[in-house]
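input
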Amino acid sequence: MNARRLKQILAQARTKRILVIGDLMLDEFVWGKVGRISPEAPVPVVEVTGESFYPGGAANVARNLREFTGNVAVAGMFGSDRGGRQLSELLAEQKINTAGVIEDPEFPTIVKTRIIARNQQVVRVDREQLRSPSPAQVSRIVGNFRRRIARTDAVIFEDYGKGFLSADLVRQISAEALGAGKIVTADPNPLHPVEWKGVTGVKPNRNEAFLAAGLPWSDPAKTPDKDKALLQAGEVLLKKWQTKLVLITLGEQGMMLFERNRKPHHIPTKARQVFDVSGAGDTAIALFTLALSSEATPVEAAEIANHASAVVVGKLGTATVTPDELSASFENDRLA
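output
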């Protein structure tokens, strides 16, 4: 894709209105240094030098979108606890619409704490309670969506398998969005059985794709285009989900795009250095969906998602990519 075409797509993206529905989380990073081993157990002692907080999970997808458009909303659930207040404040600071968020005093906000020393993750601590929304909460979320559907261009389901995306909620929102001609995409969790039938596109990683397709794991072939097991998984998922697009992320091998009635298309990775893969999938589904809603072809959308992910894995922590960084990635690729 040349610079002019990328500029056209990004210009359209600025006007798009995207809703992200899924498991909202607070990402906490505890930064420090290791100077010794604990005398109590053979573990490092981390001397804390700072803390950072970011929107995580589905909220991180919204955060990535917010770099490209001012019209981003989230629907999900968090508690009335300290984590919920922090997450609410962070979303407000970034001007992400939270009208579709349910604050439930009986629900503990999901918090992921990563302890980082010398640019490496030492340990991660998860505080979570898996719970689906009640029938009354589902009705409230669906009602809110119906009121804003005319002001929405695309819907992203971000499933971290924490329970918020119940089968009933997905079914009702998908029917409303697809019936109104909106783009609907999903970042699935195969351990959380949800039907994605009929949506525009689904973006699993390789492991998730094999699990969802019901196929035994197979080590990657050197060339994804000749990876028979991968090609089979993509075709199975196109039929199973009856979706137009399946984008399988392949880590260091890039991405493979499957599209109805077309040959699979491999997009090689653009990552030059990898510091942290946290949130790379969030970035991929965010930019893939935004590009599709901005009249990019599926291949162009996949290329944009691939470049965006490459930028993010080169940063430490739950990071985002900016339009300038995305453009620079394409330019560096052209000059390479």
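quick obs: The first helix runs from residue 3 to 13.
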